[in-house]
């Protein structure tokens, strides 16, 4: 058994004409639904390119802040490389670490030797279903002058992420199989309307 915590996830995408049908079906099978508007900044180590050249995967950090809750702080998290498709053919399973940051997450990341690589805003809906969170969003571009989000065009692709709401350990009490089954259940619920699949990020 590994000491890692994991995220189990499936991903999908669709165009705006299908929004209402997909929204209705997910809402029907979820316990709660909220608007979501988040800002995400991706950091990589200052020597990321050298690490890649040397054949190792640099650990990427993401800082996320929920803008619909004025008092919410930054959450800093990182994913490692997904486990192989042979080990987990049905879903993306990847080691996941997360920490709440009080104050300035961006300076904190810089202190760790990380530099900002990109930033996006995501706007849409957030659903809870048992141990899962389902995010359905469009990405917004950032205005280079103001750093504020530019509303997405109506025809911007919608993205869906179905994933475990918090890091899961693979133990006898909470085997990863339970989380894999939970995301696969959503995949079956959405069949014919939305194709949810595994992806290696």
From TrEMBL:
GO terms for biological process: regulation of transcription by RNA polymerase II; termination of RNA polymerase II transcription. GO terms for cellular component: core mediator complex; mediator complex. Transmembrane segments: none annotated. The keyword Iron does not apply. Belongs to the Mediator complex subunit 18 family. Component of the Mediator complex, a coactivator involved in the regulated transcription of nearly all RNA polymerase II-dependent genes. Mediator functions as a bridge to convey information from gene-specific regulatory proteins to the basal RNA polymerase II transcription machinery. Mediator is recruited to promoters by direct interactions with regulatory proteins and serves as a scaffold for the assembly of a functional preinitiation complex with RNA polymerase II and the general transcription factors. This is Mediator of RNA polymerase II transcription subunit 18. It comes from Mycena sanguinolenta.
């Amino acid at each position: 058994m590994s000491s890692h915590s994991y995220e189990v996830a499936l991903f999908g995408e669709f165009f705006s004409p299908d929004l209402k049908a997909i929204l209705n079906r997910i809402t029907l099978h979820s316990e709660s639904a909220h608007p979501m508007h988040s800002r995400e900044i991706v950091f990589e180590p200052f020597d990321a390119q050298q690490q890649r050249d040397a054949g190792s995967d640099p650990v990427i950090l993401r800082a996320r802040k929920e803008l619909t809750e004025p008092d919410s702080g930054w959450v800093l998290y990182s994913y490692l490389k997904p486990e192989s498709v042979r080990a987990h053919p049905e879903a993306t399973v990847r080691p996941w670490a997360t920490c709440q940051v009080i104050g300035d997450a961006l300076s904190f990341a810089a202190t760790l030797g990380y530099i900002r690589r990109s930033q996006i805003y995501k706007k849409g809906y957030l659903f809870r279903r048992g141990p899962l969170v389902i995010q359905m969003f469009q990405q917004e571009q950032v205005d280079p002058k103001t750093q504020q989000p530019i509303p997405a065009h109506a025809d911007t692709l919608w993205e869906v992420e179905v994933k475990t709401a918090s890091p899961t350990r693979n133990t006898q009490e909470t085997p990863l199989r339970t989380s894999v089954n939970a995301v696969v259940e959503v995949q079956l619920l959405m069949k014919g309307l939305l194709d949810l699949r595994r992806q290696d990020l």
